[in-house]
Amino acid sequence: GQQLNQSPQSMFIQEGEDVSMNCTSSSIFNTWLWYKQDPGEGPVLLIALYKAGELTSNGRLTAQFGITRKDSFLNISASIPSDVGIYFCAGFAYSGAGSYQLTFGKGTKLSVIP
Amino acid sequence: ETGVTQSPTHLIKTRGQQVTLRCSSQSGHNTVSWYQQALGQGPQFIFQYYREEENGRGNFPPRFSGLQFPNYSSELNVNALELDDSALYLCASMYAGATDTQYFGPGTRLTVL
To answer: Which of A14, B14, B24, B92 could staple B102 via S-S, CB 3.0–4.6 A?
Structure first.
């Protein structure tokens, strides 16, 4: 089945530093999504990427959909304490019969040191 | 807020019991998916419902079943609970045919003893 390799698994950074995390896949996806999850809550959508090569920003967040459609990265600039959480990449693929399946990476746990 | 709600928030069951979890989709969304998230892992796709029919399933046994109602609310049922079923269960809704984006509810934390 499809698998997403997300790295790094965890990061400890100083407040104000930039952060970069990425995801690679053995399969092609139609859409890449980046989510953030706080403890005890559901994932919250940060950025959605729909076209190969697309570069999209959302405030301090920037993400790109790889040209091969098998990878994506997420950058966070000038990190702040509220950026703490677990970041997930997810690939969306149409699997036939009207079914859309979302496959997640294992997450990157971000800790920000004030 | 995503407009997706789930109930209950937490639930404790014993092995062998059955459980029903509920989800209310975001208004206008006709597709709902359910995910299981074990501790320290990413969510795993269980199944998807579109117009009250299951139209996609992940690697989960038949004792995981679901329903979607005309008002786009849905249920996840798990029979013969096992200890490994302890997890956060998430539902996510979308409007099929629009942008490929799913919006998640806050989840139900199920503990099986």
So the answer is: B92
Torsion angle in degrees (nearest 10) through CA of B32, B89, A92, A29: -150
Segments of chain B with pLDDT less than 50: none
Probe site for chain B from A102, A103, A104, A108 (most B CB atoms < 10 A): A102
* For testing contact with chain B, the best of A31, A99, A109 (most B CBs within 10 A): A99
Q: Do the Cβ atoms of B100 and A100 come closer than 8 Å?
A: yes
Eight-state DSSP code of residue B25: P
pLDDT score, position A99: 72
Pairing type for strands B10-13 and B108-112 reads parallel
Question: Which pLDDT score is estimated for B98?
Answer: 61
